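User: Predict structure, ligand FE2/S2 (inorganic) cluster.
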Amino acid sequence: MPYRLTIEPSGHEMDCDSDETILEAALRHGFNIPYSCRNGTCATCKGRILSGTVDYGDIEEKVLSEAEKVDGLALFCQAIPLSDLKIEVREIGAAKDIQIKTLPARVAKIEDVAPDVRALFLKIPSTERLQFLPGQYIDILLKDGARRGFSLANTPNDDALLELHIKKVEGGAFTGHVFSAMKEKDIVRFEGPLGTFFVRQESTRPLLMVATGTGFAPIKGMLESLFAQGSIRPIHFYWGVRHSEDFYYEDLLQEWQSLHSHFNLTKIVSQPDSHWSGPTGYVTEQVIKDFPDASAFDAYICGHPDMVFSLSAALAQAGLDSEHIFADAFVFAK
Ligand code: FES
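Assistant: Predicted complex:
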């Protein structure tokens, strides 16, 4: 039977299985507490047990001493509950709390998900873990010193592989390589996590999430994390593409719709063909048509700068204060 785990001072509560570490439980429920190695060597996850008992795991004295255990400390990446627990740890709520790393990664899997979109799954060395907030991105470092930024589409809980959605760009030095020559087991280098595009947890406002094209990637991570937390904030997600075949992850979208009644999805196509019977046009017009008064929302927008700027301006016109608009504008990385 799972134990009850409470994180203070946030008061977040969740279950924690008897064979699961405290860190695993927190991440599984979408709550980000500090970690780095996840194998008991770096001490980044060290925190205080306020009440309850744990199995500390097999930890070297220099990482967690007996005196520290007596003082109530534990490594949350190793400690397993033996009772209901209350712990004290500051949840990560800002990008500045996260260490930016430069790491190699091996291409573990490449999947064609839409005619011009590939999902790239990267495996980092087993001695490393990448802490990040859903919605952040990494920069792929090219040999000539150039960089290409891509959002992380997976959640911190599901971090065995880092998931990127790559849009093919004609003549693109990196994306051209991804679509022509890249193969499994290739090695890339990256820096990350980067960016401040992540859901502000302190807010309880309904969410308006808008993506065009592969701007879906960070929104996917954000949504999966919100669902894992059991958040009941109403979510209106608009996804705009040029052609209906540009949508991908159809099964996942349907699963979200069937499991989460507070999740509303609108897919919109700007250049429809005869197969498309849904809304047509641009997301900016559709959002404003649906919400002429947008003042109550927190808006998260990811896509081409033209869309991001026009929608941000339209939302401001519709009464949404700029402090509630969070955006990640990108031109497709070449
Ligand atoms: Fe490194 Fe726990 S000791 S994350």
